Amino acid sequence: MTLRPRVSGPKHVNNPKASGLTSRSTAPSSSSETQGSRAVAQAVLVEIEREGCLADEVLDQHLNRSHLDSRDRALTVELVYGVLRRQGTLDWRLDHLMEKATRRLPVLVRAALRLGAYQLLYLNKIPPSAAVNESVNLVKSGSKALQGRWTGFVNGVLRALIRAPAPDWPDVEMDPVRSLAVRYSAPGWLASRWMNRFGLETAESLCLATLAIPPLTLRTNTLRINRDRLLTILSEAGYQVRPTSLSPVGVVVEKCGAIHELPGFREGFFYVEDEAGQLVAPILDPQPGERVLDACAAPGGKATHLAMLMQDTGELLAVDRGPRRLRLLKENCRRLGVSMIQALDGDLREAASHPALTILRKRPFDRILIDAPCSGFGVLKRHPEGKWQKGADQLARHQAKQLQLLNQASALLRPGGTLVYSTCSTEIEENEQVIERFCRSHPEFYRESVESWLPPTGGALLTPHGDLSTLFTMQSMDAFFAARLRKVAG
Fold it and tell me: How confident is the model at residue 280, as a pLDDT?
């Protein structure tokens, strides 16, 4: 088995659909036009690395404070996500040119070098001189200590990157994990886990999927419009759209700019949600008039989907911790015209002692959804910063929390009721092992196959236990897991 041949030469265009750029030809090439974009990108990357925060949240904050036009905002997005996706490969290339490893450099210098290297290696239309000079300017605009010591260093390293031939990839026969990690910018420990579980070929495919630009996928809000009408509205506005292959309410939009500028956004015609995520709520199969609990609800994707399936009739309690997260949920409910959801601030694991959650025990629920907090390894192409912020040591801690959530939820469900547990994780510790451990300690619950609640073409997504897993569709959608549990009646 050999890995895919490397691309010829050092340059490889990373198609930035999510940023609104379709190729480097649409990106500005003048250094005077793009200095602002690079400066914002550097500030975002530095904050992500120092604070360990989510890229999309930090990027939104910085863009909202900037005065960049739409073109330069798109370049900023491309630079941030491009560097995060390719960081492992960029560092490997840079490390060949320096005595000191990239990870040991000052964070501002590290960010400037990565930005410069990304432009040189992956964005063909930016002139090399502009990529180098503007990276040097980023260091000059930093502290005086950086100006004196590091401007010449950054200039020399990036100019060496232009001149030096690309080194050979690590040999797949000698060190397959290193080869996967370098070629596909994957954490070595995760590449190793996937190779041990699935073999080299599948591990390569999964690592490659983390570099993919995720599609923009909408979930039609059938409380206000049907999918055919939404497709027509978007198409007539000039967007390239198509229905999703599995979800009956999904729409894929090609080459989209800002989400809020899409026709129908303000009218609440859709919610942005990956196709894999759209398959989870139907597995719970909530009915109008029932009492339903969404135990980890913010920002409201699954909760508003449940409300849609219930025709906005019945009781739907949405629990999550923190006013900011609940504010997002409420804003999404208002935009989508959902009125049945009652938001509660709290952690279900504290339901027995939290005063605000005593309402949960008033009477049992008919159905409960636990879209559990997890590692998020199934959404690395949307959150590439997670590749560098997370590790295998988190899996056991997540599993403990997930079991706590299930244990609390089991006491809130009526006999004969249904519980769905889901994650956006690729790892068995957070998926199959959680369900197996819970069922062993709760004999009053049994596993049901989700097949009856999947689209007719979704049979390939069934695991041997009858759970949903989109792990092996990571090229086209996120990796989600969902199991359906039934509580014994009587």
Answer: 98
